Amino acid sequence: MADWVSDSDDGFQWDSDGDGEAAGSHDGAGTSAAASRNVDAPGPSTLAGPSSHSVEQLENFVGMGFKKNTVLEAMKKNGDGDADSLLQLILTLQEIENDPLLDSGSASGCVPRPVDDSDDEGFLENWDDEAAGGNSYRGPNSDDSNDEDFLQEMSQKDEKVESLVNMGFPEDEAKMAITRCGPDASVDVLVDFIYASQTAVDGYTGNFSDLEDNSVGGRKKQRFMEGNKKKRKRFGDEAQGSRGTFDGSHEMPMPLPNPMVGFGLPNQRWRSFDRSLPVQAIGPPYFYYENVALAPKGVWTTISRFLYDIQPEFVDSKFFCAAARKRGYIHNLPIENRSPLLPLPPKKIKEALPRTKKWWPSWDPREQLNCLQTCVSSAKLLDRIRVALANSDNPPPPRVQKYVLEECRKWNLVWVGRNQVAPLEPHEMECLLGFPMDHTRGISRTERYRSLGNSFQVDTVAYHLSVLRDMFPQGMNVLSLFSGIGGAEVALHRLGIRMKTVVSVEKSKVNRTVLKNWWDETQTGTLIEIDDVQILTAEKIEWYVRRIGGFDLVIGGSPCNNLAGSNRHHRDGLEGEHSALFYHYFRILDSVKSAMERM
What we know:
Layout lengths: L52 H11 L4 H11 L4 H16 L1 H4 L43 H20 L4 H11 L5 H15 L23 H10 L51 E7 L6 H8 L6 E4 L9 E6 L17 H4 L26 H12 L7 H14 L2 E4 L2 E3 L3 H8 L11 H9 L4 H8 L10 E6 L5 H8 L4 E7 L3 H14 L3 E5 L7 H11 L4 E4 L25 H16 L2
Helix pairs in contact: 1-2, 2-3, 5-6, 6-7, 7-19, 13-14, 15-16, 18-19
């Protein structure tokens, strides 16, 4: 008798709404990851001297009789916590060490099983390398190989915090900026982020030109008693500030509309919306930001607050194609006179994939697919379904139908033969997402699934961008952040909008190759490629603005690794290592606005 247990041995809980992408960009996987740690960092002999706060803490607690490994583990878990919380954590870890019953487990709960990365066994892209046990407690005999790197990183962080405090910034803001921008971010980038964050929280009443001089490539940050006085007045006259955190954890969740149709759909009667943009949000440039709709509590409230308090437009792409894709979009584009791409794509599975119609059983009621993912089912599961159906009557009994339908919905399986289902092919995903045929051909099958699973749905995005067609008849200059495989560029091209210059920022070399190949075949404008948002400083932005005459559109969607519903182990919201890159989108957008104001 067939076994009706899911093929996923780890008990993976699928989100039927389908927002389970693991990588994160608006159309590429592994796009612009957070700053990596320096695995070649020098040893303790090159660390900062006794003035280094972290080294002093380590020496103090070791001098009190605690084990070095225990103290280091507690320091990593404690983050920016104070000495009291660090001491409590050390004592807790010591208790776990000394209690054999507790030590048999892990301080952070069950350690997930590593997932096979092979193409045909169906990997889960939203598992970080750390998911195989990186958060579990390390006992006294564990490997010390990363401790020196950790100390070096902490020492560098302390030095940057000290530099920022000496420049007049509150210590909590300095630490938050390093958390957001990554430990390898330059002081210039950290300063840009703090200024941008202050402006966001203060209601965007300030002008960045008041905080820096206008020289290209050499802006000097003003250190000024006057600036400190203004800050203390804003922060309640406290030396270290008293503002709430930036993470939105205290915010109420933003309600999602049902149905998720945004400000209207093609060929529907236009409804009037009261959408007045704040003065600070009005372009130039126009901007467009995208991410998963079903994010943790407070995430969209925080994103909205940083992006000039604009309300998100939540749209499910099932109204534009045959696959669901629930997304939130924040933009300052007009919403009147939108027009869809023609011809309109099919909205039913059997219309989009006509060869499946012959084999589609009457007891499978699906008409649309769930959100297209970065991973596929295993060959074992497909064979299990085939055997179960072959050993059953026609139609199969209800319990067999239920099992098969659950797996088909989970993995977006379609019917390709008698008793035979299969995952979507990459070229079928390209069609459903609005890309040209073979757009991703030439890279590995695994990379094709990963990149397409994280892309824009082109028809949906093009509907929103269509208002730009008549506004820029001579073409546009575009800053494309987290470009992936070029979903934004393909949308503009299909709308007939000429791209004079595109500055594309994308971490993945594979995705850059896909975009470059498409660009060379279809475009006549200039493509400038940058491989990381974290190196795009305000000085570089101002240089590009002056060189090309400004940007007409800033578009992108930061990684959703820590936001997606199926990411059980690292669903940390905007505090997560990858999704915190949203703050770079905001920092860069604000720098563009400031640079263009000074033109």
